[in-house]
Design goal:
The structure holds two protein chains of two kinds.
Chain A (H helix, E strand, L loop, with lengths): L4 H11 L11 E3 L6 H10 L4 H15 L23 E3 L13 H10 L3 H8 L2 E6 L2 E5 L2 H6 L3 E4 H7 L1 H7 L10 H9 L4 E5 L9 E6 L10 E6 L4 E9 L7 E3 L2 E6 L4 E9 L11 E11 L5 E8 L4 E4 L2 E4 L5 E10 L4 E4 L2 E4 L5 E11 L3 E10 L7 E11 L4 E10 L5 E10 L2 H9 L4 H17 L4 H15 L5
Parallel strand pairs in A: 3-7, 6-8, 7-9, 8-11, 9-12, 10-13, 11-13, 12-14, 13-15, 13-16, 14-17, 15-18, 16-19, 17-20, 18-21, 19-21, 20-22, 21-23, 22-24
Antiparallel strand pairs in A: 1-2, 3-4, 5-6
Chain B lengths: L6 H10 L1 H8 L4 H17 L34 H6 L7 E6 L2 E2 L5 E2 L6 E5 H7 L1 H7 L10 H9 L4 E5 L9 E7 L7 E2 L2 E6 L4 E10 L6 E10 L4 E9 L5 E10 L4 E8 L4 E10 L5 E10 L4 E10 L5 E10 L4 E10 L7 E10 L5 E10 L5 E9 L3 H9 L4 H17 L5 H16 L3
Parallel strand pairs in B: 1-6, 5-8, 6-9, 7-10, 8-10, 9-11, 10-12, 11-13, 12-14, 13-15, 14-16, 15-17, 16-18, 17-19, 18-20, 19-21
Antiparallel strand pairs in B: 1-2, 1-3, 4-5
Amino acid sequence: MAVTTETREQVKALDKYKYGFVTDIEMETAPKGLDEDTVRFISAKKNEPAWMLEWRLKAFRHWLGMKEPAWAKVSYPPIDFQNAYYYAAPKKKPTVKSLDEVDPELLETYKKLGIPLAEQERLAGVAVDAVFDSVSVATTYKGKLEKMGIIFCSISEAMQKHPELVRQYIGTVVPYTDNFYATLNSAVFSDGSFVYVPKGVRCPMELSTYFRINASETGQFERTLIVADAGSYVSYLEGCTAPMRDENQLHAAVVELVALDDAEIKYSTVQNWYPGDENGKGGIYNFVTKRGACRGRNSKISWTQVETGSAITWKYPSCILQGDNSQGEFYSVAITNNYQQADTGTKMIHLGKNTRSRIISKGISAGHAQNTYRGLVRVGPRAEGARNYTQCDSLLIGDKCGAHTVPYIESKNRSARVEHEATTSKISDDQLFYCRQRGLSEEDAVSLIVNGFCKDVLQELPMEFAVEAQKLVAISLEGSVG
Amino acid sequence: MAVAATPSAGGAYLERYADARRRLAAGSAPWLEGWRRAGAEAFRGAGFPTIKNEGWRFTPLYGLVEGDFSVDAPAAPFDQSRIKGVTFGREAGNRLVFVNGRLRGDLSSLKQLSPGIELLSFAEALASRPRLVEAALGTAPGLAGHPFAALNAAFAADGYVLHLAPGARSEAPIEILWIGSGADKPPVYHPRNLVVAGNGAHATVIEHHVGLCIGAYFSDTVTEIALGEGAVLRHCKVQDESREAFHLALTGARLAAGAHYDSFVHSAGGRLSRNEIHVALEGRRAQCRLNGAYLGRGEQIVDHTTVIDHVSPETSSKELYKGVLDGRARGVFQGRITVRPNAQKTDGQQMNRALLLSDKAEIASKPELEISADDVKCSHGATAGELDDVSLFYLRSRGIPEAEARRLLVEAFLNEVIDSVALAGMRLTLERNIARWMAGPA
């Protein structure tokens, strides 16, 4: 499969990261480094209640005694946690009611990102809680949601306005002792989103947040908490882009979902952070802890992710199926190209009776990338009638990349039925030949086949994301054919 | 619940049997003693693995670490006629019998060895073929860094050595019978077996591990296999140790171009058993098939761990393990398939299925694919569950009593693997074993 010069050039043009730019806004940053004072600074800055500071400090002290996990199949130089800023906020604290009051430079950034707030507000019907380097600057559609009793705001705001809700749920799914990065996040998290959907309310629109890492050397520590009360439904979208930069940036987010009786949460992610250049220089380290608890009967949590960015992805969105008849789903497409490394998967912990889970994971590895699916399906002794179906497929493009599958399956209940299937292969020559013979260029053919390969996952995405994701799949693989 | 096994436990274990090691050292060639000492040091450093070690997270070594064994324990007298009951009769013409890891010449028989085939005990081979042993020892994949390979090296005294000259073919299967039999103190033995097959050689080896006593014993076996170009080894192992026994077996096989290693393992005995197989497909078109059928009940832990390394292009591996777990038994399956960067056109298929018959039985399985070449076809599958209600109902509706229906379904489940065994006599034995197991605890 020879690549024509023309293709090479096209690829070169496309390879440039589309969203690589830096917005110059005066930052108010905490001093470099991490100690108890940093934690106190962040907490004070956000005017947090005392219990929150206490919790952060407990996490920080616990973190000091922890070691970085080394079991994932990723390699990177050691991170100097003292050589980073842990807090950065746009200086002008925006207290805006309409978009006109927002710093024009910020608005320009969003435009470049392709999320013009005004347009989205009017046309798409999507309420956007835009997080610009840790502090949310504008929240739209709040009024409409408020009328239904839905709380959708930044977690700092929630801490001021609904401290009882935050206190009741924060850290109950991902405790501050959970793992190295989650503990770090618990100590220094700067902001994130908070969603509470009251009993019986079906959230009428997709809630979405665009995260964006902006200030140089500022690790982002997002903390998201979504609570769906009995009988409610909410769909949440998360999409990410980040500017081009040489320094590796650390992102250690924590996402907690709580679904009570008959509630359903759908959480979709398109992650397109800067993956580093074609030689593996730079890029984001994405070490994320995402976990959902299906606490109530008949509750459901569904994770859908399209992971195309980041130099390193370390992420295992999980479901704890506590309630009887609860359901967990995980749909994932992870694409790695050049020198990207992804170690991602899910955990499905079946505790309640008749709990069901479904895992569909598609890994695509090209260039020199390493792509690992790592997952756990555990069926507890009381999970009568639990069902799991897992399918992990890997596609290899090029002979320098790797695809790995490491599933753990533990069943302690005989009535449970657990099925796991995994395959690894390259794009079939027959399929490629068929497409080429019908006049498709090689790259179009590959894009078509890969999109077909990912279809089971992409179709789970909300409409707003589906189109973007399909394009992303194609763009991420540009330059890998041949 | 954590096992109190720390690296220091390794040192303590070595101290406990220091006398036995001194006895072994006396009269051993310097190279051999050096090798044993290296093993002892490696074990001292590594200690017993604990559930904190990734490869042992599902297999706690309860009772083994603190066990008080005897290296040179005399065997309890056993009824020799029982040997007949556990061998494969006419199909095996050549037989070595080991009692507590030591060859018993009086029970062994070597009648029909084809030309070019040597079968001796490890102790004999050290005396008559030291070069062969020295060259082959410690070369198999999977041994480096393995705590029980190190422990085995420290105490290796006997075992079997099978040498096949190029082109040699053994017409009749070679049978190795391992008898564990403790008297006052539970015995421990560390057999080291070597199979070296020249280009184009063919052989079938049947290993049978039985306990002819009720008590505990600990068998820590290492088998090293090197197959030359186009050589074929059929390796069939039946593990039917006593219910108190600890059975840890590590097999490492290295395959040259076009060689074929065909392994079948049946595990039914032992309080704790682990059968670990490492295969390195080093030559082009080398292939292996690893199959297994296991049964567990009571408090048994039955562990099967396999590592297949596709080093060269056009290699293939096929793997199927099926297990039935009852009582409070725990089944463990860990299978890794690695495809090296230039091992294009690799075909690797792996499947493991477990049937849980009781509420307390459990299965942990961890199939792994680690693939660094693109033109490959690799897959793995794993299932766990109970007997299919629909099938059971079908049989019951045809007037078959429930117990009978369950037996039929379990047998059918295992037959898929049993059928892969080439020797008809062996298949019969296995089927009988399974039927006996289904009939209930002995």
